[in-house]
Amino acid sequence: MTPSSFGLSQWWAKEARNGTPVVVTMENPNYSVVEIDGPEAAAFQSMDKGRGKNAKQFTWVLLLKAHRAVGCVAWSAAGLWALLGAIKKRLISQQGVAVERDKLGKGKLLFRFLRGVLALSLLMLAFEMIAYWNGWHFQKPSLHLPENLHIPETTEIQGWMHSAYLSWLSFRADYIAYPIQALSNFCVILFIVQSADRMILCFGCFWIRFKKIKPRIEGDLFKSDDVECSNFEYPMVLVQIPMCNEREVYEQSISAVCQIDWPRDRLLIQVLDDSDDETIKMLIKAEVSKWSQRGVNIVYRHRLVRTGYKAGNLKSAMSCDYVKDYEFVAIFDADFQPNHDFLKQTIPHFKGNPELGLVQARWSFVNKDENLLTRLQNINLCFHFEVEQQVNGVFLNFFGFNGTAGVWRIKALEDSGGWLERTTVEDMDIAVRAHLNGWKFIFLNDVKVPCELPESYEAYRKQQHRWHSGPMHLFRLCLPAVITSKISIWKKANLILLFFLLRKLILPFYSFTLFCVILPLTMFVPEAELPVWVICYVPVIMSFLNILPAPRSFPFIVPYLLFENTMSVTKFNAMVSGLFKLGSSYEWVVTKKAGRSSESDLLAAAERESKPANHPQLLRGVSDSELMELNKLKEQQKEFLHPVRRANKIYKKELALALLLLTAAVRSLLSAQGIHFYFLLFQGMSFLLVGLDLIGEQIS
């Protein structure tokens, strides 16, 4: 169509529209006709155009929503199909799976308890289903059964089954509901107290940020006008790297520590190897020899008998005669990679502060985005460092030593009795004893040391068991010393009530009891109920506060809430074993590492490998046979580092809880309890995924 013809059609359409606009309003059953002329007509015409345009937009929005809904349904169906496939493969076919084996006394009692509760819940569900289909359900009962529940007369009872059901209603209201409700109220009180403690910690963290409170360095320890006396400003520092069969990470940790910026004549590095694998020992020895030939003051120590685990290793190293010449000791686990200026950021805080015994740095994680499990761990640990450690360090000058990425004044260690082998949490043990002796701690939130997070659920589960059984074991041992110590009453109260009881004992107790046992039981005993705010509102608020230090993790708030409740069974089992000194309370399993490196470490490694001419010089003290053996070991190491999948684990306690929660979810449908149903459903699915080992990766 030409422009002239287009203009003619516009003119013709304009002329054709001249006249009196008419609006017809429908008033059923009659019609009313209204004539509109003048300026109002233009307004109505523009409104009609807008309505047509809005109708098209509305149609597109509906189509878009429908497309998204179909995609969501398809995604949900695919996920459900994959879950059913995993269940068939791992539970029914048992292809490539290994069932979790509980040692004597470890977890067996808890598993039997869960199995018994599950059997009772299935029996009660079957009973309730029969009553529901026969129309025997009445109004929602309460603890006062005769006032709110209509009991049929004898003539209304329909057979022995109906009579048995009525007897069950009366029995559960008189004898079962009250104990469950009492335990529920007790756990709710603990829940409120622990939530208040967490909110106070968060408020303290906000206050620290608002006031910009952080430890300051007075003066410059390393500034000296006299070049000859500049070394006098650097104190003697001992660096210890304890390790045990750390094939994946030994090289990068030793490399990072050897590159710390500190005068070499005032720094000694101890590689404390407890490995029982001859191949790994030779590899670590070769790495130490390489850095020693570069001029680094580094020594290799190996114990023939691994007694006391890490505490025994550190105690043995501190017994060396040359340790008396050093003032400070820095400790790094095998997967930690400190920056070159770590000592220059930590040691200056000791100057002019003779009461300071420990400077603790924060951890950062090179693999926090590796999978869902590492993302959820990152949320927990960010809250631990950003909120718990920082607030306690600023306001109390006390917190639990994290076992690594910290610098101790050696005099503080000696005054506190040194490393003891009585628990698996030697770091918390020495921190408590130093606190009782009056030493102060500083936490540096802005000094971060890269490390690894466990990428498999098996490794994470074993780590959490040690982290929650050890404190309760330590509490039993150090309680008399805390009571008889000379510290103030409020410090004793903080140590006993908050540090140990509230954050180490009460938290796993109420989390497991309230959300994994009481809540599903209330579905079968509706006379005892939990309020909605306990199930939904307060946990969501607490999860929101936990995620604040890691704002990028907000999309994972729901998985985080569900996973924390899922881990409560492991933490509760560990807490009980430590408190009552069961067989697994003194069990140390080295956390498996994947050997992840940060970007800077990879670049440094590439730069070192790009200089092959230096290698003969580094190995000039090694014989030809030793060199051939070392090359052979290096080839074996390369083959070992290829990812190898191993058998998946089946966790019986988590599966039993999954079935219990899903059974309770089915029962909640009969009562039309929406929030309870969704919580039980998703929490049961979370337990199912963990029980089938479908979260995280498996590292060989």
Automatic annotation (TrEMBL):
The keyword Transferase applies. Its main location: Golgi. Keywords: Cell wall biogenesis/degradation, Glycosyltransferase, Golgi apparatus, Membrane, Transferase, Transmembrane, Transmembrane helix. It holds the Pfam family Glyco_trans_2_3. The chain crosses the membrane at residues 66-87, 113-133, 175-193, 495-524, 530-548, 655-670. It is found in: Golgi apparatus membrane. It comes from the Eukaryota. One of its GO terms (biological process) is pollen tube development. One of its GO terms (molecular function) is glycosyltransferase activity. One of its GO terms (cellular component) is Golgi membrane. Residues 329-536 form the Glycosyltransferase 2-like domain. It is a multi-pass membrane protein. The keyword rRNA-binding does not apply. Belongs to the glycosyltransferase 2 family. Plant cellulose synthase-like C subfamily. Probable beta-1,4-glucan synthase rather involved in the synthesis of the xyloglucan backbone than cellulose. Seems to work simultaneously with xyloglucan 6-xylosyltransferase. Xyloglucan is a noncellulosic polysaccharides of plant cell wall and consists of a glucan backbone substituted by xylose, galactose and fucose. This is Putative xyloglucan glycosyltransferase 8.
